[in-house]
Design a protein that fits this description.
DNA Primase, Chain A; DNA primase DNAg catalytic core, N-terminal domain; Dna Topoisomerase Vi A Subunit, Chain: A, domain 2; six-stranded mixed sheet; 27 helices; globular
Length: 614
């Protein structure tokens, strides 16, 4: 969630709830949902097949009067903003932006508005370059050599046009001259990695290369990848692949090529497959296998997983059947062991990449390989455990240390978070494979945790510690739930609340943990915003934050609500203290210590007066 948006100058503090109300008022839920699904009116509601589960009978109701949707089968429920969040896999601000653009309104103000305008301008520049690259590919004369190469690779025109593939002609000033004729800012094009500069001379960053536009999950071009054309002068002196430089729009280490076109098929298949090359992705789509993405020539990392988590809970890595592929599996396993995602492995035939395999054999074998993909830990264990008995004995300790090294920091047996449960399952599987008791493995893990050098040096470092994923808010007292709802919808009140409410006074562990994270922002001097809190939240915790924030935004008198909650917490605390004090008063009276009893009675009366004050 976002905090209040805008400047505090002049006493004007536009609240996020006002922005939400404006966006909702301009975004009729029937119109918005109807842009994604086929609706049929039934009485006062509209019905549709639910896109959030495998629905054969229309289970989704869209209520125009209440501006809500609800699936009676899978339980999905919300308003127009949460519908867009879920179906587009967007965060709150992105969904607000999308609906705001659709309605032609601006919900951000001051600095946020400036940043949004700057980003829009940058996207216009990348879109401008992409269109020129694409036109050059299909120009009858300019792009003939590139078209011949792509045709030899077996890529069809329709596939190339869907992905927006283009061509950067040789020479070094083709796009530069176009930018000058069309009045483009060369400094902006340089910052986006479209142009480059040596001393005071600008030149084309991409030349004599097939251009693959790199788009974000919403289909906006944020950068480019260039593949040098074989047999050209550039191929003799330059790297085979060349990407845009990192910019405000593009970061090579977190971008996934083809994600915008893979989302829909990933929803149907339940996984995303990760390959290595641009043409692998294109050829997979051309053969009807849409749930495929590629990294930008880098190994999978935590930033990639942050992207993947928004669209799937299971990833299938497509690796070569060689030693390098085995090492890649082990590295990826060390990454996924620290996240709430499942990792499977699909093997390729020796010497073939997905593009060649699809060309030679069609879609069937790759589809079958994806369907038959194996759990990554099972694949790693097959490699760690030789067939010979003597070798297996020697490998057991090595395998034990490797798996425990993958797990990162020590996790208590029986932990309740999703990550802890996943690690418990890893230990159970390893125990069965080694023929050991689980307690023995946990003891070995504690030893490794105390001796960092005992860990596998190839293990990938884990992310910063996250708060435990929230699986359920069951049992959270309404008073504590409402306090969090107010603070998540009005984070500007957190500092004031911190002076009045001790986190130890919250009885529910989840409520206390979320409140302590808010207080941590205050203590660190960081802006108290939901954006600042987001990196420390698991997906489950963030989902709870969104639900509570929505609850907070629905109150028309939030400050009055906040006042009553602070008083309620004081009353509850006083009630607990008063109970203990009255019990002590009774004990003192019973033993005849009248002076002490009178002093305790005075304290009880003073506490009652404090609670009664407005």
């Amino acid at each position: 969630m976002l905090p209040a948006v805008g400047s505090c100058q002049g006493g004007m503090v536009p609240l996020i709830q006002e922005a939400v109300q404006r966006v909702k008022a301009a975004s009729d839920i029937v119109d918005v949902v109807g842009g994604y699904l086929s609706l049929r009116q039934t009485g006062k509601v509209y019905k549709a097949l639910c896109p959030f589960h495998d629905d054969s009978r229309p289970s989704l109701d869209i209520d125009p009067e209440r501006q809500r949707f609800r699936c009676w089968s899978c339980g999905q429920y919300g308003d127009v903003i949460s519908f867009v969040q879920q179906i587009e896999r967007l965060d709150f601000a992105e969904a607000m932006d999308l609906l705001g653009r659709r309605a032609g309104i601006t919900w951000r103000e001051t600095d946020d508005s400036l940043q949004s305008a700057q980003r829009a301008r940058m996207l216009e520049q990348t879109d401008w370059a992409q269109k020129h690259f694409q036109e050059a590919l299909w120009d009858r004369h300019t792009g003939q050599a590139a078209r011949d190469y792509l045709e030899e690779r077996g890529l069809e025109e329709e596939t190339l046009r869907i992905f927006g593939v283009g061509w950067a002609p040789p020479g070094g000033d083709w796009l530069l001259r176009k930018s000058e004729r069309e009045g483009k800012d060369r400094g902006e094009l340089e910052a986006l990695g479209i142009l480059a500069r040596h001393e005071n001379r600008y030149y084309d960053r991409f030349r004599e290369r097939v251009i693959f536009p790199i788009r974000n999950a919403r289909g906006q071009t944020v950068g480019f990848g260039g593949r040098v054309l074989p047999g050209t002068p550039t191929a003799e002196r330059a790297p085979k692949y060349y990407n845009s430089a990192d910019s405000a729009l593009f970061t090579k280490s977190e971008q996934l090529f083809g994600l915008d076109l893979a989302r829909e098929d990933a929803r149907k298949r339940g996984y995303l497959a990760v390959v290595e090359g641009y043409t692998d992705v294109l050829m997979a789509h051309q053969h009807g296998i849409g749930a495929v993405v590629a990294t930008m020539g880098t190994a999978l990392n935590h930033r990639h997983l942050a992207q993947l988590k928004r669209h799937t809970s299971e990833v299938v890595l497509v690796f070569d059947a060689d030693a390098g592929g085995d090492v890649g599996v082990e590295r990826a396993l060390s990454l996924f062991a620290q996240h709430e995602m499942e990792l499977r492995v699909a093997r390729l035939p020796d010497g073939l990449d997905p593009c060649d395999w699809l060309l030679n054999e069609g879609a069937g074998p790759l589809n079958q390989s994806l369907t038959d993909s194996k759990d990554a830990l099972a694949v790693a264990m097959e490699r760690w455990f030789p067939k010979g008995v003597e070798e297996r004995v020697g490998a057991a300790q090595q395998a034990l240390d490797r798996v425990l090294g993958l797990m990162g920091e020590s996790v208590p047996h029986g932990g309740g978070s999703a990550t802890a449960i996943k690690r418990n399952l890893l230990v159970g599987r390893l125990a069965r494979r080694l023929g050991l008791r689980e307690e023995t493995i946990w003891k070995r893990q504690e030893e490794l945790a105390k001796t960092p050098r005992g860990r596998d040096p190839r293990a990938v470092a884990g992310p910063e510690r996250q708060i435990e994923p929230v699986l359920s808010e069951a049992g959270m007292p309404m008073l504590e739930k409402e306090l969090l709802a107010v603070l998540f919808s009005h984070p500007e009140w957190v500092e004031e609340t911190a002076a009045l409410v001790d986190p130890r006074s919250l009885t529910h562990p989840i409520a206390r943990g979320l409140y302590e994270n808010l207080l941590g922002l205050v203590r660190s001097g960081s802006p108290v915003t939901m954006d600042a809190l987001r990196p420390s939240l698991s997906p489950q915790a963030h989902a709870l934050v969104l639900r509570l924030a929505d609850m907070g935004q629905s109150n028309s008198e939030p400050r009055t609500w906040w006042d009553s909650l602070i008083a309620g917490l004081a009353n509850r605390l006083s009630g607990e203290q008063g109970k203990l004090m009255r019990e002590e008063l009774g004990r003192l009276s019973l033993v005849g210590d009248h002076d002490a009893a009178l002093e305790m009675l005075r304290k009880v009366q003073e506490l009652s007066r404090k609670v009664a004050r407005p």
